[in-house]
Every structure is written in structure tokens, then in C-alpha cells.
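Reopening this one. Same input as before:
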Amino acid sequence: MTSAADPYYVAKEEVEGAIQKVQEMHKEWGRLLQSENTARSQRFQHLHSEISGDLRQLDFDLQDISATISMVEENRKRFQIADTEIASRKAFVTGSRRTLKELQESVGGNAAAAKIEADKRSVLTKKDGGANTERRNQIAKDNDQFLERERQSQQQIIQSQDEALDQIGASAQRLHSAANTISMELKEQQQMLQDLDHDIDKETEKLNFVMKRIGRLMQTSDNKQICLIIGLFVLMIVLVFFIVNS
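Same output, byte for byte:
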């Protein structure tokens, strides 16, 4: 069987091309792994995903090549292939698997996984830190607004108390003025009562004098004197009336 008609060589070329492509991508992948935050680098994430997919496909391709080699060994009469060719094919599969394993261990190994996980935690920590800062700023803002509202409320209460005290002071001043007025009026009334008592005492003395004269006149039977007594009595009543109503 010629190499042009043997599908092994087609598969071999495809596997060799795929391995070379993955190795080139792996170089860039390794550089980005060391130099950048893998959780933020879209290029690294794209390479990581593409390399992982290509490695899985290469594993399937090598399994298919191994299966064809086994089939050839089991059917030596049908497939007239020399032992050296079969050994060469097995060596190719073994070498390709070795390279594939090295790439898989590099991409999926503990060191790479630790770096990727650390980058993820770093991004999450920064996000959480930013969120915490935002929450702290919001809490501080809310506290400032609360204190401002309380300050304004206290000022309103103090202002209301001041206004109430001003009203009370004005009322007290009005009451003081009214009390002074009443006191003056009471003093005037007291003076008027004292003057009235003095006038009554004077008129009482006069009345007593008149009554004494009337008593003396009552002891006589002279008509003129009786008329005089009646006139004096009327005059006395008129004087008392004026005294009371003055």
C-alpha cells in the first residue's frame, strides 16, 4: 500500500499540524499566564478554551490511529505492512501522546489552576472591596442626612420654644401692666373711700348737731319752730342723698 493511498499518513499530517498549532498557542498562553490577570484577560481565556478543546480532539485522533494500528496487526495478511512501518507508527503515537500529556499537564496542572483561581479571587476581592466602599459611602451619606434632619428638627423645636417664650413674656408684661393699672385704681378707690369716710364723718357731726337742735326744738309747741324743724329735716335728707351719690 502506497503512502498516498494509506489514510494513516493523512491522519498523521493532521495530528502533526494540530500539535504544532497547539504548541504555538501554548507559548502565548504561558506568557499571559505569568504576566496578566487571567480572570481579566479575554485573550488568555480564549486561548485556554481553544487549547483545551484541541487537546481533547488530539486525544481522540490518537485513539483512532492506535485503533487502526491494532487492526493492521490483527490482519497482517490483509494489510501487507512491514514490521518496521508498524513500529514507526507506534513510535509516532507514543511520541504524540507524550507531547499531548505534557501540554495537558501544563494547561490543566496544579500550578496553572492555582494561578487562575488566585486571579479570580483577586478580581472578586476588588469587586467586593469596591462594593463595600460603596456601601460605606452610602451609609455615611445616610448618617449625614439623618444628622442634618435631626439638626433641622432641633432648630425648629428651639425656634418654637423661643416663640412660645416670647409669647409668654409678652403675656407676662401685659399682666404686669394690668396689675399696675389695677393697683393704681385700687389705690385711687381706697383714697376715694377714705375721702368718703372723712366726708361722712363731717356730715355726721353736722347731723348730730342738727339732731340735738331738733331735739331741743321738739320740746316746744311753737308752730314756726315745728316748720323750721321739718325744713331742717328735709334739708338733712337732701344733704345725705347728695353725700351718698357724690
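So the earlier flakiness isn't reproducible anymore. For the record, The chain has a mean pLDDT of 79.
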